[in-house]
Amino acid sequence: MIQPSKLYKQATVFADFLTQIYPAQERVLGPRLDHPAVLDLLQRPPSPASTAAASEKSLVNKLSKLAPRMGKGLAHEICLALSEQTVIVPGTNAATIVLPRLTHQLAALRGQRDDVAQEVE
């Protein structure tokens, strides 16, 4: 069974990692780490550089598949956050490897929690 503390700890590790490498993006995505669209976004283009290279319209299309109501606003906030970050932090290249793995772990823990919840109900 998934312990809430394990899920909370993983989410905290994830948010701390984002804060250290991509602080502007963490302010936008951190509070929404529970949302499937955010987890999907962080798994697909694994770096803010690749996300920034995508147009806002393509982000809207991608996010709207899993977040129809908040896709457009979230895409706009992400683009603004990425434009705020002007400094490249040491470790950014390594983050493109670590970030998708942390995202997969977090998504797996949330999936397990949801599976257990369905079985119990």
TrEMBL record:
Q: Would you say which domain of life the source belongs to? A: Bacteria
- The protein here is known as Uncharacterized protein
Question: Which organism does this record belong to?
Answer: Duganella violaceipulchra
